[in-house]
């Protein structure tokens, strides 16, 4: 196929897009200050071909953050495999950027050297509640971490809460007994009553209902609650009850969100109070973390995969009530030697019914004003698990007269996914902020300075394509070889704040993929659209960024790890590399020629691209005919059919377990 003139496309996009050293930004360390309650649940899988657990551990108690990058700890660790509860005291370190994104040394390292180099990736919300996961740990476990400032007043369970939970009981530690459940809990003075618990058991997500609890006693004190839902689970009722026993709950400062679980087991329970205006808000970012069991491949392997994630959601609006644009750092653990990591980005439609939002993966329940939300994994699609969502920060102006990069404002210029997605060599990025330039200028030759503006990546000038007061488009240098990239903007007003992120291998993002017209073209240079659809067997030119390093001929060096699919139907990649006319030493603009496979369904399809430890399932294109089709019906029509591959394919078996974890660059 003839390669198209990408530079003219970039000129159009620059005008129409919405508006040091290797070290992490520490300016947000003060966001964590004072006494916090926390719970971290860790599941270590890979015990056998079914992926049962070696062990499971829950760590919970008090962390006192010093506001300066250090913390002290007074907690307990419940080891389900050993049937022990151990007290932990000690200290650790943390680093938080202005956005609230950062990391901390895992509390369990204090008593177990196995976890000595592990760090929990953290997201601190404006509410000061924290969510995170040690996705890049050295032991291959899945986990979820949540922390909240200890309330200054006694929390209240009075009122009505939506509650969800997930558990692999210590009695078995096998994935056949994983359970996830949902119920509504209404508290009065000293007692609570619930609706019936509805949920499912793994490995085959068998639907299950448990009768409601009534007259359940609880006590509150020291900013927490202890609730006793009858007797503990036993071998006799393990297959008939979803949940029972005593649970400890910790609360957000406003009392509208709680989290916790059994003090002697490794479950995780979260809840949100019912209140006004509980919903996703358009253009609102959310910080997220979660973990779940994926049973969708049980029929083929007799096993399940365990996932733990952290990242962010952006909520977009369209004619169908809304759309989620998401990034998750995903740690997937399977049977022995089957784990892998990926930066997973995707777009999904939202439907709403009776105030409840649903997408392909989760059903969401919101607290008052949407500040907190919880996601209950879709068991009918083969998932058991939970997710925690917290409303993130919004930025509208600069705090000083110097250039200012919004702390969450550096994103892939093709995908526009949330800021937690890694940077990669040669990636075209969009930097949003205030006073970034005093003029508007564009230069397709990609100089290292434009309109009096420089972009520094680890202190060195980077190529710049477009500058304006609110947005700068630049390129991560192809030769970057550090685990962290720190970015600043310099102009006549001074030097901006620093924004940091991890550096990965690939981060594919199709240009304009966040809109209705992704940059995907026919061989005659016309764009693929509803009135000009692609057809099976046709070769298309896809314009994107984030394919990583290049060889001397301009080919993507990571091509052998790349894949393409059309809503789960595997296509072929005929070329991947630099677009002719783009400086070879810079990167920025890439082209991928792909052939639409036979068997692709007529209608809207996700054109999804996988790279080395990355996957993007965001862009929608029309194949054959889109008459009467919609994004929502396209996704829902395939529920229950090899679920994971309807939006993202399974990672190639030949590549599972062969990639190292993210380098541990932070420990002294």
Task: List its salient traits.
668 residues; disordered C terminus; 13-stranded mixed sheet; globular
Account of the 3D structure:
This protein is mainly beta and 668 residues long. 4% of the residues lie in helices and 44% in strands. The protein has 4 helices and 46 strands. A 13-stranded mixed beta sheet has the order 23-24-25-26-27-19-20-21-22-46-45-41-42. An 8-stranded antiparallel β-barrel has the order 1-2-3-4-5-6-7-8.
Offer a quick outline of the entry:
The protein is mainly β and 668 residues long. It is 4% helix and 44% strand.
List the topology elements:
Layout: H1 6-16, E1 33-44, E2 55-66, E3 70-79, E4 84-96, E5 101-105, E6 119-124, E7 130-133, E8 142-149, E9 159-167, E10 179-187, E11 191-194, E12 197-201, E13 206-210, E14 216-221, E15 224-229, E16 245-251, E17 257-261, E18 268-273, E19 285-294, H2 298-301, E20 305-316, E21 323-333, E22 340-349, E23 351-353, E24 356-358, E25 362-366, E26 372-377, E27 383-391, E28 404-412, E29 428-434, E30 441-442, E31 454-457, E32 460-461, E33 464-467, E34 471-475, E35 484-491, E36 494-495, E37 499-502, E38 509-510, E39 520-521, E40 539-545, E41 563-566, E42 569-570, E43 572-578, E44 590-595, E45 603-611, E46 614-623, H3 631-636, H4 644-647
Parallel strand pairs: 22-46
Antiparallel strand pairs: 1-2, 1-8, 2-3, 3-4, 4-5, 5-6, 6-7, 7-8, 9-10, 9-18, 10-11, 10-12, 11-14, 12-13, 14-15, 15-16, 16-17, 17-18, 19-20, 19-27, 20-21, 21-22, 23-24, 24-25, 25-26, 26-27, 28-29, 29-34, 30-33, 31-32, 31-35, 33-34, 35-36, 35-37, 38-40, 39-40, 40-44, 41-42, 41-45, 43-44, ...
